[in-house]
Amino acid sequence: MDEMNSVNRGSPRINAKDLVMVAVSGQIAHPIGAANAYRIGNDGVPRVLPATGGIVINQRIGDRCVGLAGDHIEPGVSLHNNQREVVGSRKGPNQALITYACIGNRVRVTSGPCVGEQGLVTGKHGGVDHVMVDFPTQVLQRLNIGDRMQINSIGLGLELIDYPGITVFNCAPELLQRWGVVERHGRLEVPVTHLIPGRVMGSGLGKNTVWRGDYDIQLFDPAVRNRYGLGRLRFGDMVAIIGADTRFGPSFRQGYISFGIVVHGDSTVSGHGPGVTPLVCGRAEQFKAVQRNTANLADIFGIRNSVIPKDYPKLARRDASNQQNLSRVNRRREVSLADDY
Length: 341
Description:
Layout: H1 2-5, E1 22-28, E2 39-40, E3 46-47, E4 55-56, E5 76-80, H2 92-100, E6 106-109, E7 118-125, E8 130-134, H3 137-140, E9 148-153, E10 167-168, H4 173-178, E11 182-184, E12 187-192, E13 194-197, E14 215-216, H5 222-227, E15 238-245, E16 251-264, E17 275-283, E18 287-291, H6 297-300, H7 315-340
Parallel strand pairs: 12-18, 13-15
Antiparallel strand pairs: 1-5, 1-9, 2-3, 4-5, 5-8, 6-7, 6-9, 7-8, 10-17, 11-12, 14-17, 15-16, 16-17
């Protein structure tokens, strides 16, 4: 704990000595297919795309999450605990995994060809109830579906000693120390890549807790997407949601602000989009969000350099543009054929 406190001397004091580290585990989850392979997009177009689960080898924290030919893509490895205990709910072990795991916790592979390799918890995806873990690409290429991993979970019960009105969840102490959060003039300055209006948040609203997942940024309105630069979102981006009270579940509330991390990719389905796992919430006057392109988990932990932010169109928008171009080409061909006769 003392080492973590030395990472960033200007960061707020935490109750480090009170926290308990508990080992939890899971195995790499296989993707699950629905009865119908098609997903109907917000534009009414059915598509067959890769989605949640498995080992995503070519997408990691620091990479773009908008415009991919995928739906709710989870970068790196997706973990689920399929074990059953003799007490409690049948889903009890996995519910504990997704509750206990915190962003920034360290992960160790315990079975398969990559035993001993180290990873980092990067996200929690509600609904499917997965915990996402980042590994170097060469490790991702060698891992097997079903390989087991153990997480030294710590972060539950974390408090900011001098800010009792601020709530922290899903956040490892090491992440809070490395993030670059500093106290200045009675407020906490928090580095983020984007400021996101709470009114565009979608799927995940209505839950009574944010400890087991995320909620989504809707990108269907072009003007809002352009105004806030949401086409430049990346996996692992730290973001500020303005007008978001996530203390007892995600909800829109003016005067509050929530900070979180982008954990999964965009979606064509109505109400869905890049997912954000909340980390910190409180009244807006207690914070100052500072925009920095390097406020990404990959940069924060020195894992790799995040890609330079670039605006990518949504998959549906690109498809529509391609379809319009194809229609124009076809019309020209029809005219040409008509001239031949």
